[in-house]
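Re: the multi-chain job from yesterday

Posting the exact lines I submitted so nobody has to dig through the queue logs.
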Amino acid sequence: MSLIPAALATATALAGAGALAGCALPYRQRVPVVGVLTAGVGAGGCTAGAAALSGSRWSAAFPGLLPLAGAHVAVDALAGLFMAVAGAVVVAVAVYGIGYAAGHGAHGLGSHSAQAVLPLFALTLVLVPVAASVSTFLALWEVMALASLLLVLAEHRERVSVRQAGIWYAVMTHLGLVLLLAGFALFAAQTGGETFAALRAGAHTVSPAVRGLVFVLVMLAFASKAGAVPLHAWLPRAHPEAPSPVSALMSAAMVNLGIYGLVRTGFDLLGGGPAWWWLGLIAVGGASAVYGILQAAMASDLKRLLAYSTSENIGLVLIGVGASGLFAAYGNRPLAALALAAALLHVVNHAAFKALLFCAAGAVLRATGLRDLDRMGGLRAPMPVTAGLFALGALGAVALPPGNGFVSEWLLLQSLIHGLAVPGVAVAVVLPLSVALIALSAGIAAAVFVKALGVGFFARPRSTQAAAAKEAPRLMLAAMALLGAGCAALALVPGLLGDGLDRAVDAVGLPGSGAVSDGGLKVRLTDVSATLSPLWVAAALTTALALAVGLPRLYGRRRRRVNARLWDCGGGAPTPRMAYTATSFAEPLQRVFDDVLAPEQDVDVTPVRESAYLVERVRFQHRVPDRIEHRLYEPVLRSLAGAGQAARRLAGGSVHLYLGYGFAGLVVLLLILAVGW
Amino acid sequence: MNAVGYTAVAGQIVAVTAGAPLLTGWMRQVRARLEGRAGAGVLQPWRDARKLLRKEPITPAGTGPAFRAAPALLVATTVVTAALVPLLSTDTPVSGHADLIVVVSLIALGTLALALAGLDTGTAFGGMGASREMTVAALVEPTILLSVFALSIPAGTTNIPAIVTGAVDEPARLASPAGLLAVAALAVAVLAETGRIPVDNPSTHLELTMIHEAMVLEYAGPDLALVELGAQMRLTLLLGLLSSLFVPWGIATTGSWAALAVALVLLAAKLVLLGAVLAAAEVFWAKVRLFRVPELLAGSFLLALLAVTASYFLTGAS
Amino acid sequence: MNGGLYTQLLDLACGLFLLAAVLVLWVRELAVIVRIFALQGIALAALAVLLGAHEQRWDLIGVGIGIGLLRAGVLPYLMRRALAAITADRQRYGTAVAESRETQPLVNVAASLLTAALLTLLAYAVARPLTELNPTPATRALPVGLAVVLIGFFVLVTRRRALAQVVGFLLLDNGITATAFLATSGVPLIVELGVSFDVLLAVLVLQILTTRMREAFGTTDIDDLRELHD
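And the result, structure tokens for all chains:
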């Protein structure tokens, strides 16, 4: 009982100290001190979350902390799950950040401002789930957005593209905030209270139309934070441009909070809703899953690829959440609990492998200065540990056994496959399509991560930077190993999470499914029969691998391995330039999904002056633009720019005119009040 | 009882491992005869494997651990799936783990390992093969999972022994449209996964047409033997899986020695028949162009989806 | 007839009926499309005969046999003759292959197949309330008829060759007939005869149209009809 407030208070104090240290200390001490303090913040959050997952609850009100309503906080198992995930990610990434920023110079992530903001960002990641009133939640949410924005902008002196990314992120995140504000304000006005308890109690008195409106507004806001298509535009910009530890924090901890908000509002505060809410959510999730992974398949920027893969995984989670709501709407609560457990488990797994992948990508970036897969290659020789850890993360991301992503995706598929027991046309139509979309995204994800690993880390270096790479410092490797251990633990013994996951599902009013339990070894579905024991699969694979390696050796004469040249068609040894790059690897997929991706290419042929038949230079340019962005955002931006141009006529430059607008506005408002009321 | 179960598992593994080259030899022989050639005999793949195993292992310049580990991993995933799929008996010590999703994922894991090895060579051939293989694998995935979906609806589980036992008890399930459509869909998926003729030509070495062979071009000696054995085992296993799911009769459902022996004989008969049919079909079919393969897979996807829908809108399961 | 066997056979006939419609989308070769259409005719006839045998209505069996003759015999024969005429004509110019295949449908084959999947789900969703009124094996298969209607319409919209269009139209009609059988165990005999006669006439008209088109434009790509607009 007393553990949660103590841990949270410690985390807050450490964050404050970290912020001060970031402002005050000189560069040499700043990075390690802030790193350690931030890790402390994460540890505090993780402890509090773990305590909440093991069954404790805590709530309190601080009337003086925020003006008007005061701050309300409460911790239940659902909040605990997200706190624990965020805290664990923060711990590892903070340690990683020490190695990353050290020796990088006092600019970028090592600067005063970035180091001062980092602990605050970590704190908000841990604290957002604690909020138990609308104003507390929004305040923390906004601080989190601002802190992450400042961190995204940390390297703005080095690359112009950072500023672009910052603008996109700022605009999208604040549009989200406006929607959130509108949704919550409407909800609070209808229920007559702004604490979550009041909202929960009053939700049933609100008319269905208003509830629906609240859900749509809030869903859009949270989906944009989670990076779901079509509100994902900020994600593939901000994640690659942010310093790698920040990308890891955003992708593995911050986007989760969008899911948290959705589950908290949709299930807990609104108390579930009609089928159309959840069908909408499944549609968004399905679109995110497939579109996100397709764009990832096309990306040749490693961090952009990972960012789009985040979109995909969030899509899978949204399908799970949507299916859960749908099942609950049709009254099958055990199945709803199962789907929600699958979604939450996937959140945990995604956080683990995505943090690891971003950290490994950061290690490559730090060692070579490259994000472009086309110019990497051969990194497994100079950076064996990083390559191995990236492979571990990728195994999780492709959702194949024995990776950790497989466990949650298996559970998700099980909940969908057995969902046909739920009557209703919508269910019967949506479930097979969802399964197909999940399968397609899993299949393409395999291609994506084969590309990332095989083109980026295997074969031979395709640029001088890649050839000159050196292994990352010990501290970074240690942090990545920590995340890798997390991935392995989640992959082999997901049962360790079992009771906590049940409590988290329980916290939103669905009966715990007991899906992940049984001595911490098996995933077992109680209402339908299917079992998966990841540890058994891993053990069987290892045994079979030993057999496959050992038996042929017994038969064949033992000989040493002989080196040989690659087969070169008699044309001399193939150069690294002949190797497949990320772009060429993705070409068949791009052709298959031509209609969806609409790639653009220009061929520019310059003939020599004397003859039109002799070519001097051929320029070939090929791009796969984000089509949703083109179709959806550009018209909006254009019309906004048009409106802005039109509004310029109102601004004549005279101060009197501007003051006059204000005065006229005031008078008109008063007139309306006088006449209307 | 338990001894029978363990024997069944061991029998499945041995049958798939030892039978795979024989099945390939048989299919080549059938094909040769249909084309008017004498053929090299059923045992030829075994002789090839023996020859390759005795050669010295070769490491092409610039390849790394992924290249060396992939063949063993390919064989290992197939061995595990061979233990899991109820080819001989549904009542084995591992039948609780025999989940259909796990089985198809393990097979995909083998594909992935080989694709990584192809990229690891750093040659254009390796990259091309890997790229094409992963594209086909990605597009096959929805068909496979929807077929799994369709099959698991009547049984209420994705556990393969339970599905097979259910089908043995209630043969009507198999003759229903859902069952037949699922067979057709899964058959196309199997052809794509094993690189057989409408999708890939296993006996070509022409760069324009090959997928799988391009990927493994750099392998030689014992590594090549493992890669070939792995590919042959996958074909045997997937044909065996098809036969278990759709012609389940003869598979031992109880732990008796006699049933096991009958199951072994019947499994061999089914595989010989399926192999002959496939080989004969391959004589008449042409490989489709790479960018026509998505059409084929979209078709099989549609069949799988129809199987899912048919299973509730015709028999009204819900 | 035994209830279980009847359901089984009915389901099989319906599955075949739907499968044939899907195959029409999948295949490019016009000659094969005609053959598949004949197969669908057989499935439809089997459907009618099965329903008739189950309800012991001899008129239904008679209608079924009539449908079988018309749709699996006469209509495919007519279409094959039209096809042979077209290809024989084009043989002289060496473009017979182009004429005998649906080379460039407006929506590519993979996308058409996926659309067909969605249309089937739509048909299922739409037919669900009807099915629930009186859930017998026959009405449960109602979505199959609707799906074939939708797929037929889709073929009509997206295929270029006049012959493929004819098949699309006939698919549509097959779908309507199947829906009628499944929903109400068949329309009155006289109506069915009238409809079948109409269909026969329509095919004859279309066959003449195809011949005319070939003479006028040298191809049966109906996009060329646009030229008549001006």
